[in-house]
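Supplementary Note 2. Why include the ligand at all?

Several targets in our set were suspected to adopt different conformations when bound, so apo predictions alone were not considered sufficient. For every target with a known small-molecule partner we therefore ran a joint prediction. The input for iron/sulfur cluster is given below.
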Amino acid sequence: MILKPRTLIDKLWEAHSVADLGDGVSLLHIDRIFLHERSGAVALRSLKAAGRTVCRPALAFATIDHIVDTETGRGDHTKFSGGSEFIRAMRNGAGDFGITFFDINDARQGITHVVAAEQGIALPGATMVCGDSHTCTLGGLGALAWGVGSSGIEQALATQTVEERRPQSMRIRCDGRLTADVFAKDLVLSLIGQFGASGGAGFAIEFTGSAVRALPIEARMTLCNMAVEFAGFTGIVAPDDQTIQYVQGRPYAPQGALWEQAIKYWHGLASDDDALFDRDLVVNVSSLAPQVTWGTSPQHVVSTDGAVPDPGAAATGLTDPAQRLSMEAALRYMDLTPGTRMGSIPIDAAFIGSCTNARLSDLREAAAVLRGRKVAPGVTALCVPGSTEVKRAAENEGLDRVFKDAGFEWRESGCSLCFFVGGDNFGGARRVISTTNRNFEGRQGPGVRSHLASPATVAASATLGRIGSVRDLNTP
Amino acid sequence: MQPFTILRAPAAPLMRSDIDTDAIIPSREMTQVGKTGLGSRLFANWRYIDVHQKREERAEFVLNQAPYRHAQVLLAGENFGCGSSREGAVWALHDFGIRCIIAPSFGSIFRANCLRNGLLPIILESTTVEKIAQQMEVSNGSASIVIDLIACTVTDADGTNYPFSIPPQQREMLLRGLDSIGLAINRLPEINLFHENLNRQQPWLFAGHLKD
Ligand code: SF4
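The joint prediction is reproduced in C-alpha cell form.
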C-alpha cells in the first residue's frame, strides 16, 4: 500500500483523532492541559457547578500568571480589585480536582507557556491546550498546541478531548540566515506585516527553512508564539536534535528506556518530502532589519529605520475599505502622522516581558545591549522574567544587576504589563516599547500606545529614549 | 443553551477589520470568576466616553444608536475576534443579546467559543458584508436581514440570498441548543479506549508522574 505523503500536522492530527465528526471536524485527544487563574479558575468552577469531574488529573497542570502582582513580597492580594478571588479559585479548584499546581511561591511558577516548556510538560508530538491563545508558543518544541476558551478547557478536563475543525496547512519557508542583530521577533513581525494579521486564518503553519533550523529552541517559541497574531490555528517547527537536547532531563520529560523510545519517534516527526501544503510561502530573511510596530495591529509593522505609512498611499495597496478604516483609527489612537520616521518617536516606557520574549535568551540579548548603558532620563523601564526559573537563572549569571544598573526595575515573574488587568500600570506613561505580542488599543492600559519589538530593540530604545535598534547605538 | 433556527433582525454594522477580543471586552472589565453579567461591559472602551467614571455613552458608537441598542446581529470586517482566547468576549456579546455575527473571517478560538455558547458565526464575502452594512446605513437601521440556519442562508434587505457553510455537527449543536461537553462525555468509553491505545503506542506520554 502506498501511503499518501503527509505533513507533520497531518501526522499529529491523525495520531490524536478519536473520532471524525464530519466535514473536517475531529474529536482530538489532548495529552496535556495547562490552566491559569484567569480562564482556568472559571473552567474549574463551572465544572464543579455542573457536577462534572476531571478525567485524568495527572495530565493537567496549573499556575498563576495573569493577575498575580509581580512586585517583590507579593501574595494573594492583587492591585486589581477582585484579583485574589481568581487566585484562590484557581488554587482551591486545583486542590479539589488533584491538579498539579505551581503556586505563587513555587520555584516552578511563571507564565504557563514558559513553564510548560521549561518543566518538560509540553513534548514534541504531544497535543496540548490551555485557556490561552498563546499556547501555540509550544509549537516551537514540535508540540501540537493551541489555545481554547474556558469551555474548551472544561471539556478537555472532563473528557481529555476537544473538537476542532482540521485547519488547512501552510508552510512558511524562511531561507537565508538572520544577521546577528536580527531576531525571531523581527522575523515573525515581518511575516505578519507581509502577509497580514489574518494571513494565517484557517491554517496551521509549519515554519521551515535554514533560518528556522538555525534558531535556538527559545527563539522558535517566539516565532510560534505569534502564529496566533497571524490568525493561525497554531504554529509548529518540526523537532530536531536541538529540540531533543532542550527537552532532555526536564522534570516531566520521559526518562530511561522511555526516553530512548520517545526520541526515536520524535526523529521521525517531520513533514514527508513530497507532502503538499494548501499554501506555501517562501521568504528570504538575510537582509531583514530590526522591526517595530507603528499601529494597533501586529501587521502595522516597519523596520526601525522606516517611517509611519500612509493609509491613502496607493503603495500600501489596500483594497478592503475596512482595512483602511482600521489603519486610520490606528493612526489616531497612536497619535502618529504618516511619514514620521520611527526613529524620531520618543518613548515614555520600555517593557521586557511576556511569553513572547522573556525567556533566558531574551534577557541575555537585552542585557548585552544594556551592559554599560543607562536608561534615558524620563523613561520607565521594567523587566519581568517569564518564569521564576528564568528569574533565578538570570540572577545566577548576574543579569539582574545589568538591568538594575541600567535603570530597569527587576520584577517577579508573571504576565504583568503585557496586558492591563486593572491594577498595575505604567504610571501615566503613554508610549511604550514592548517585547510583547499585542499592540491592540488599550492592551497595556487605557490610552497606552504600544510598539512591539525584540528585546534588543526594546533595550536599545530604552537607552535612546526614542524608538531605535542596536544599529543606532554608539559603542559605550 | 437556546437553540438557533431562524432570526429576522436588523444587523449592526461595525465595519472595521481585526476587531480583537481586547476591544470586545477589555480584560479589566472581567472582574469576577464567572460567565455572567458582562453585557454592559461589551466594547466598553468604544461604547463609553469615560470608562473609569460615569460611563457616559458615546453617541457615535453603533450599539448606542436607537436601532441597534438591542441588536441581535453584528456585521464586521475580517478577522473579527482575533487575539486573546478570552471567552468573556462571547459571554459579553451573548449577554448583550447578540446571537449572530457576520464577517469575512474570524479569529479561530473566538469562532470556537461562539459555537460553544450558542452564537452563530457566519462567514460571507467581504463585498457581501459591505453591501448589507450599506443597506443598514441607507435605511437608518430600519431594514432587517434573515438568518436561516435550517437552510444555511442569509437573506439581505433586498431579498438576495447568500448561502453559508457550517460543519453539520456544529449546525446540529446550534439548532438543538446542545452542549459540546455533554456530547463528548457521552463518548467517554470510546475516548478511554483511544487513550489506552495511544498509551501503548507512545508510552512515554503518560509515564512517571503523568500516570493516573
Ligand atoms: S504574557 Fe501576555 S500574551 Fe503571554 S500569556 Fe501572559 S498575558 Fe497572554
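Residues A 65-66, 111, 132, 134, 354-355, 415, 418-419, 436-437 surround iron/sulfur cluster (CB under 6 Å). Chain A touches chain B through 91 residues (CB under 8 Å). Comparable summaries for the other entries are listed in the accompanying table.
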